[in-house]
Design a protein that fits this description.
about 450 residues, alpha+beta, six-stranded mixed sheet, 10 helices, about 25% helix
Length: about 450
């Protein structure tokens, strides 16, 4: 789970800081930076798994366009930082179990762009990387108290820069640790040190990498979601939901019993009927070639295959499939949840999302986080004050230089009303309403 993100020099962000909750809704008009926040989160998640070039390929735009442009010119660096809450134990890709004494980590990363002799960009490289355990005193995520996070007694960072020879030092803290840290040169570093951690010999860093890789972005492609899947398809839902049939089949087989032959698909159908009242069931079929497809049953014994059900129904079904998955974990980022949902049913959808992210005091239960963005007043009305993050763009004028710069601002601390208020940190609901009304007028 991500509890905080900081961004500087990326797209519209300048000295940006945002505390995140298990259920967080970014509310604001179009072009206010909501999608840019998701892009930054996608970048840091991808950099835990891939080299820089591959990580940036899936983002909107060219690599040099990710570096912030101002009246003073282009930024040379992008700095990203996250604070995370880790599961206390796990298993690595080779089946070896590990424990994490320090569940609260802070991870920082700086990327820099280099230019060739012709003035054109030559590449993007890692300039600095840092990871350390957080202390109890600096932990502001009060909603984690029921889980009683452990902090350990780590004073030496797990990753730090050695300025003497421009290298990263990666500390081994597993059961068979050696005395010397791993050294990685920064001279042509085209990937992060974190992305090289593949075993439980580095339990904290492995758990951190696993947490960042578990940040998912649901961008449903209705055409792909309708397709049949073969038996070798992955059974963790893809961002486009192209393997929805295979995931539904896995959920049915994993949870079915004599009394519940459809398993958890019955629960998905109940949730779906709360949003689309005529829904009666969700079923999975397989043909002679062992390809899986699905259908949705409606009132009056009508049933429609995935090929003909509406885009909105597909979108909601994919979301509910994740929410009902017993193996759900990590962070789910989802844009405009109101699409395909009747506005009268939006409070029900928000409640389903909220319930799925509730923090349990059981240390064995894996945490699950949802971050959504929206410009819907109806969604905003269904949110609690603590769940709202208001996004807008502010322009700062520099009289001495005669120029102005704009950047994304996101504020928490929404209140019903207040007499004395810091507008850069706190705001009242009426101001969020005005932001969304201006967006509607502009549309």
């Amino acid at each position: 789970m991500l509890t905080r993100i900081e961004i500087n020099g990326f797209k519209t962000f300048e000295d940006f800081e945002l505390d995140l909750r298990p259920f967080t809704a970014i509310v604001g008009p179009n072009a206010s930076g909501k999608s840019n926040l998701f892009d930054a989160m996608q970048l840091i998640a991808a950099l835990a798994d891939h080299d820089i070039h591959s990580a940036m390929q899936d983002l909107r735009g060219e690599p040099e366009e990710f570096f912030r442009q101002t009246a003073q010119g282009q930024s040379d660096n992008i700095t990203l930082a996250v604070e995370v809450f880790l599961d206390s134990e796990g298993t690595d890709d080779f089946g070896r179990s590990y424990k994490v004494p320090a569940q609260r980590l802070r991870y920082e990363l700086t990327l820099g762009i280099r230019y060739g002799g012709d003035g054109g960009p030559r590449g993007v490289f890692v300039r600095n990387e840092f990871c350390r355990a957080m202390s109890r005193l600096e932990d502001k995520a009060d909603y984690l108290k029921p889980r009683k996070p452990s902090y350990g007694r780590y004073t030496t960072p797990f990753i730090r820069k050695d300025d003497v020879d421009d290298a990263l030092l990666v500390r081994q803290d597993g059961p068979s640790k050696s005395g010397s840290p791993m050294r990685l040169s920064l001279k042509e570093a085209s990937r992060t040190a974190l992305s090289t951690i593949t075993t439980a010999e580095f339990p904290h860093l492995y758990a951190l990498r696993k947490a960042l890789r578990a940040v998912r972005f649901l961008e449903i492609n209705p055409t792909a979601a309708r397709a049949a899947n073969d038996r070798f398809e992955k059974t963790t839902l893809s961002p486009s939901a192209s393997n929805l049939a295979a995931v539904l089949n896995r959920l049915r087989d994993q949870t079915r019993s004599d009394k519940r032959p459809d398993g958890i698909l019955a629960d998905i159908a109940i949730d779906l009927s709360a949003l689309i009242p005529s829904v009666c069931n969700v079923r999975v079929q397989s043909d002679d070639q062992r390809q899986y497809s699905f259908s949705v049953g409606f009132a009056d014994d009508m049933s429609f295959s995935s090929r003909v059900i509406s885009d909105g129904t597909l979108r909601i079904l994919a979301l509910l499939t994740i929410l009902n998955d017993p193996d759900r974990k990590g962070t789910l980022c989802f844009e405009e949840p109101e699409n395909g949902v009747h506005e009268g049913r939006i409070p029900t959808l928000i409640e389903l999302l909220r319930n799925a992210t509730e923090i349990s005091p059981d240390p064995e239960e894996v945490t699950f986080q949802v971050i959504l963005n929206t410009h819907s007043p109806k969604v905003m009305q269904a949110l609690k004050d603590t769940e709202i993050v208001a996004a807008d763009v502010v322009t700062v004028v520099n009289p001495s230089a005669g120029d102005r710069n704009s950047h994304t601002r996101m504020r928490t601390g929404v209140r019903a009303s207040s007499d004395l208020i810091d507008p850069d940190r706190y705001l009242v609901r009426a101001e969020v309403d005005r932001l969304l009304q201006r967006a509607g007028d502009a549309g």
